[in-house]
Specification:
Blueprint: H1 8-23, E1 29-31, E2 34-38, E3 46-51, E4 58-62, E5 74-79, E6 85-92, E7 96-102, E8 105-110, E9 115-120, E10 130-134, E11 146-149, E12 155-158, E13 168-173, E14 179-183, E15 188-192, E16 204-207, E17 222-227, E18 233-238, E19 243-248, E20 255-258, E21 264-270, E22 273-278, E23 283-287, E24 293-298, E25 300-303, E26 309-311, E27 315-321, E28 324-329, E29 350-355
Parallel strand pairs: 1-24
Antiparallel strand pairs: 2-29, 3-4, 4-5, 5-6, 7-8, 8-9, 9-10, 11-12, 13-14, 14-15, 15-16, 17-18, 18-19, 19-20, 21-22, 22-23, 23-24, 25-26, 27-28, 28-29
C-alpha cells in the first residue's frame, strides 16, 4: 500500500508504528543511578551489604586496607530503610567483606581475621561479636594449573601461586540454612551446613577448580555468589578474570556463563536476572542465565561538592530493598601511581540506588529508558 492509496488514518497508524520501532532499539535497558547515603566522616571503602527483610534495615561493612594498619577505621554500619544511620560497630584494623542476614543475626566475613562471625541484627556500638569458625590455610595453597586452548592449536598453561592466606569474600545463604562462601586468594568454594544452628560449624570444600583462581592485575578470583530461584545452581564471579561461572548443586563441574566482565564483584539473583557489578568499568549489569546482558546502569559521572562519587565508582555489592536496589561505591584506589585514578580524589564514600523496573523478565526485548 503506498501513501497515495492508504487512507489518512491508516497512514498515520503505520507512521506511528514505524516511529515507535525506531525509538525503541533492541538492546539492554538502561537504568539511572541516584545518590542515597553518605558514610560518616572518617569512614571509607563501603564493601559488603545486606538487608533485614523484617524492617528494611541496611547493613554496610567497610574494606579499609590502608597501611599502616593503625590508620584503618573499619566499621559495621546499620541504616534505616530511609537512610538514617542507626548504629555503627567498630572493627578497627580488620577489613570486612561479605555480609548476610539470617534469623535475627548478621553474618560477617571478617577478611582481616580470616573468620566467619555474627552479631545481633539490631546491634549497637557495644554488642559483642561471636566467632563461628576460622578459614584455613589450604595445602597446597594454590589451585592446580589451568590449560587454555588457543585458536592456532597451541595451549597455554597458567600456573597459580598463593601464600596460603585465607581470603573469605562472598557469601550467600540457601533456604535450608546452608551457607556458601568464596575464598578469593586460595580459589575455593566452601559450604557450611546449617550455618545458623551448627555448633561447632565445619567447612566443606565444595570446589577448588582453577576457574576460581586468577593471575590478573586484580588479584581477587572467586568473589560474589548467588543462588537461582530453585537453588539448582550456584553462580560465582571471578573478579580478576572477569567471568561469571555456574555450578550445578549439590556439586558439579563449573561452567563459564559470561566473560569480558572486568572486575566481576558483587552478585545477586533477582527477578530472573543475575545482577553483577563490574567494578573496573563502574557498571551494574543485569545478565540472564544464558549470559546476555539485559540491563545496564551506572558509569562514573564525577564527584559531588562533598567529594562523593556520582553514579558508580568501583562498585562492590548490591542488595534489593523493596522497589530499590542499593549499591556500595567501594571507590578503592588500586595502583601505586599517583594521579591516575578518580578513586584517589574521593573525600566522602557513599551508597547509591536505582529504582528497579517493574519486571526485568528475560523473555522479551528491552529498550533504553529511565525507570
Amino acid at each position: 500500500m503506498s501513501p497515495s492509496t492508504c487512507s489518512l488514518g491508516i497512514c498515520l497508524v503505520l507512521a506511528g508504528a514505524f516511529a515507535a520501532s525506531q525509538a525503541q532499539p533492541l538492546g539492554p535497558q538502561v537504568l539511572e543511578v541516584e545518590p542515597f547515603v553518605e558514610l560518616p566522616s572518617g569512614v571509607r571503602y563501603p564493601e559488603g551489604l545486606a538487608t533485614n527483610p523484617r524492617n528494611g534495615d541496611i547493613y554496610v561493612g567497610t574494606f579499609d586496607m590502608r597501611q599502616p594498619a593503625s590508620e584503618r577505621n573499619n566499621q559495621l554500619l546499620r541504616y534505616a530503610a530511609d537512610g538514617r544511620l542507626l548504629a555503627q560497630r567498630s572493627f578497627a584494623g580488620m577489613p570486612l567483606t561479605g555480609l548476610g542476614y539470617a534469623d535475627g543475626q548478621l553474618y560477617i566475613l571478617n577478611f582481616g581475621a580470616g573468620k566467619l562471625q555474627r552479631i545481633l541484627a539490631d546491634f549497637t556500638a557495644d554488642t559483642p561479636v561471636e566467632d563461628m569458625l576460622d578459614f584455613p590455610r589450604l595445602v597446597p595453597p594454590a589451585t592446580a594449573a589451568r590449560m587454555v586452548d588457543n585458536p592456532d592449536g597451541s595451549q597455554d598453561r597458567i600456573e597459580f601461586a598463593a601464600s596460603g592466606m585465607p581470603a573469605p569474600n562472598g557469601l550467600v545463604f540457601a533456604g535450608n540454612g546452608d551457607l556458601y562462601v568464596s575464598d578469593s586468594f586460595q580459589g575455593v568454594l566452601y559450604r557450611i551446613a546449617d550455618a545458623t544452628h551448627c555448633r561447632p560449624c565445619s567447612l566443606e570444600v565444595l570446589s577448588r577448580d582453577p576457574l576460581l583462581a586468577t593471575a590478573s592485575f586484580l588479584p581477587f578470583g572467586a568473589n560474589g555468589l548467588a543462588l537461582d530461584d530453585g537453588e539448582r545452581h550456584l553462580y560465582i564471579n571471578n573478579a580478576g578474570d572477569g567471568r561469571l561461572l555456574r555450578m550445578p548443586l549439590p556439586g558439579g563441574e563449573l561452567q563459564v556463563v559470561a566473560e569480558s566482565l572486568p572486575g566481576a564483584d558483587g552478585l545477586l539473583f533477582h527477578d530472573g536476572l543475575l545482577w553483577l557489578l563490574a567494578n573496573q568499568v563502574d557498571q551494574l549489569l543485569g545478565v540472564d542465565e544464558q549470559g546476555l546482558i539485559r540491563i545496564r546502569a551506572g558509569g562514573f559521572q564525577g564527584l559531588s561538592a562533598s567529594g562523593a562519587p556520582l553514579g558508580l565508582l568501583f562498585p562492590a555489592s548490591s542488595v534489593v530493598q523493596g522497589d530499590w536496589m542499593v549499591i556500595s561505591n567501594l571507590a578503592l584506589p588500586l595502583t601505586p601511581t599517583e594521579g591516575d585514578e578518580w578513586e584517589e580524589q574521593v573525600r566522602t564514600w557513599n551508597l547509591v540506588r536505582l529504582r528497579l523496573p517493574r519486571s526485568s523478565a528475560k523473555g522479551g526485548a528491552t529498550h533504553a529508558a529511565n525507570p
